[in-house]
UniProtKB/TrEMBL annotation:
Record has Electron transport as a keyword: yes
GO cellular component annotations of the record: mitochondrial inner membrane
The organism's taxonomic lineage, starting at the top: Eukaryota, Fungi, Dikarya, Ascomycota, Pezizomycotina
A GO molecular-function descriptor: metal ion binding
EC number of this enzyme: 7.1.1.8
Protein's recorded name: Cytochrome b-c1 complex subunit Rieske, mitochondrial
Length: 252
């Protein structure tokens, strides 16, 4: 019952007692009747609330009395499919779907990684360089840049070829016959990087008529083989291919 109703009823009763008026008495009876009806409606609503609460079964409710036991693993049996076979089919479907999605994601990740790591078009364009040999006279050196490194191209004379072939290569520190270092005897093509510490040797210099590295005094012969000084290996021969009588492509 609200405070307003209580105050109104009390006021009416007090007035009736004081003045003994029949109209006031009737009004007080009416107010009492309304109070009783209101109390009955409250009682009805609380009863229906208790009934609906009593019908609710929490999956955690295994404790004593009204207190739920939250340490109990709830049972969801009533949400399962009717038969065990149906459950397994659903599980296999979910595992297969998630596995397929994971495989697709992994494939995309690896593919993107490989695409990013592969050489771009401008890098691939620099991977090969074509040289016109007709412009290099006999007995002259030319240096070209390939993949950021110098490449020596020597158009050797007859005497230089003979000298390179007659050398006792078995006694050299990096034994290698001249025939293993050239595809055509008149063309010597090799990287211009000293095998000691990477300086660029000077052509037509040194004690063997080939190349000399001024950094620490290594001497190479006319076949690019290490003959004196600290260089441990011969100058490296890159991959190349003759594409014509007077054309070569370095970097095949
Ligand atoms: S780098 Fe050429 S001799 Fe040392």
């Amino acid at each position: 019952m609200s405070l307003t109703h209580k105050a109104a009823a009390s006021l009416v009763r007090h007035t009736a007692r004081q003045q003994h008026l029949p109209v006031v008495r009737q009004t007080a009876a009416l107010v009492r009747q309304q109070q009783q009806q209101q109390q009955r409606s409250y009682a009805d609503s609380s009863t229906s609330s208790n009934v609906s609460h009593a019908n609710f079964h929490s999956p955690f409710h295994r404790g004593k009395g009204d207190r739920p036991d939250t340490t109990v693993i709830p049972s969801f049996k009533k949400y399962r499919a009717g038969n065990e076979q149906g459950n397994k089919v659903f599980q296999y479907f979910m595992i297969g779907s998630l596995g397929g999605l994971s495989a697709l994601g992994a494939k995309d990740t690896v593919q993107n990684f490989l695409v990013n790591m592969s050489a771009s078009a401008d890098v691939l364009a620099q991977a090969k360089v074509e040289i016109d040999l007709a412009s290099i006279p006999i007995g002259k050196n030319v240096i070209v840049k390939w993949r950021g490194k110098p490449v020596f191209i020597r158009h050797r004379t007859e005497d230089e070829i003979k000298d390179a072939e007659d050398t006792e290569w078995q006694k050299l520190r990096d034994p290698q016959p001249d025939s293993d270092r050239v595809q055509k005897p008149e063309w010597l093509i090799m990287l211009g990087v000293c095998t000691h510490l990477g300086c660029v040797p000077i052509g037509e210099a040194g004690d063997f008529g080939g190349w000399f590295c001024p950094c620490h005094g290594s001497h190479y012969d006319i076949s690019g083989r290490a003959r004196k000084g600290p260089a441990p290996l011969n100058l490296e021969i890159p991959a190349y291919e003759f594409t014509g009588e007077e054309a070569v492509v370095i970097g095949t």
